[in-house]
Please model this.
Amino acid sequence: MKLYNTLTRKKETFQPQDGKTVKMYVCGPTVYDYLHIGNLRPIIVFDTLRKYMERFAGWKVVYVQNITDIEDKLIARAAETGLTVEKLAHRYTKAYFDLLEQLDVKKPTSSPRATEYIGGMIELIKTLIDKGYAYESDGDVYYRVAGFKDYGKLSGRRLEELEVGARIACSTKKKDALDFTLWKAAKPGEPKWESPWSEGRPGWHTECVVLSREFLGDTLDIHAGGNDLIFPHHENEIAQAEATSGKLFSRFWLHNGMLTFDGEKMSKSLGNFAYAYQVLEKFDPETVRYFYLSRHYRKPLDYSEAGLTEASKALSRVYALIDEVEAEFAAGEEVEVGLSGREFVDSLGQFRERYSAAMDDDLNTVAAIAAIQELVSEANRFRKTAEGQDRRALTQVTGLIRELGSPLGLFQRERQTGRDLQDELIRLLIDLRAELRIQKEFALADSIRVRLAKLGITLKDTPQGTIW
Model:
């Protein structure tokens, strides 16, 4: 497997440090609001990478994703709503985990909340001060950026350029405009914790360093997030982690591209903004996953309902094959297929190989999905000419589609098997319709088909019988 490493700016062969367990940290949400459509991209992308590593590479993945439950945005939103920061964070944390479940995202191995590890953050800041990388100023603590010689190595920004281009005015508390906050003294009414410097709270960049190292150790295999986090967030994480441990913080840094909205940057002020739950009210979760994975994760992705509609149609083409084959061949004893069927089954290996080659090439889900779609096309061509028991070879296709779709979170919906009353009643109507057609009662037979269609049930007549 090769992954593009933002740190080295090239694709590199990936193996976990111990050869079997991937230590992976993905920046999680600040729980002050519902997630928007841009937030969905890293969630879906890195969930897919994790599942592929587990199900195809055979590695165990320890997947840690933090919950930022104390931060300026939370405090401001709490003041707007009249809720406490704690209640607000609880509300949106629950909404976040509900969203993960809805999207078939595997739950993180650990989801530490920042407020549970304030003590560790204070200890990290103490160490940075003791080593000369940080200083206290009137109750606040700042990281001395100029003191870390490798600052800028992830983003590629030189310290001299940053100093010239600094847009923010230097706080009277700071020694340099580039220095960033490690500890912030609380204002009246804000949440606060005791520290050697003041009653206050840690900075956002410090939270991720402590939480990742708490669960994964000093050196991670993968640290991931949106490319908007490269600078300053991930750069500032490196500065703290490597200054205190003296070790490489993360071997690989993975970043997904940003989402645009109908060709424009998303913005609440422009009105081109949507929450994830609003999208899921219009489109099913598999359609959403298909849409996000239909473009390479490092490239920008333009969000549009037209794009989601196309994704829905593409999914339907695959499910049409799955449903029809599984309707034709109910689960039962295996039957030997003929020469044509065996040759067809033997040809399927190429699609698995193409899929794996794509996924191993920096998680190229676009090419992986294309391999599945071409597998469907090949199966449909085979169906047109296959006869008798040779047709049972098609069950190998549906099994392979489900296998390859599993890491993508696609093509996993099970067809109803006819075990409940509803299925039996529909089958009864299908049998009645068939009998009416034999008796040339075509109007009544058509009436059954039309009325079922109004209920969302489509009948399809095939040489092997009617399926729904």
Notes: Residues 403 and 412 are 9 Å apart (CA to CA).
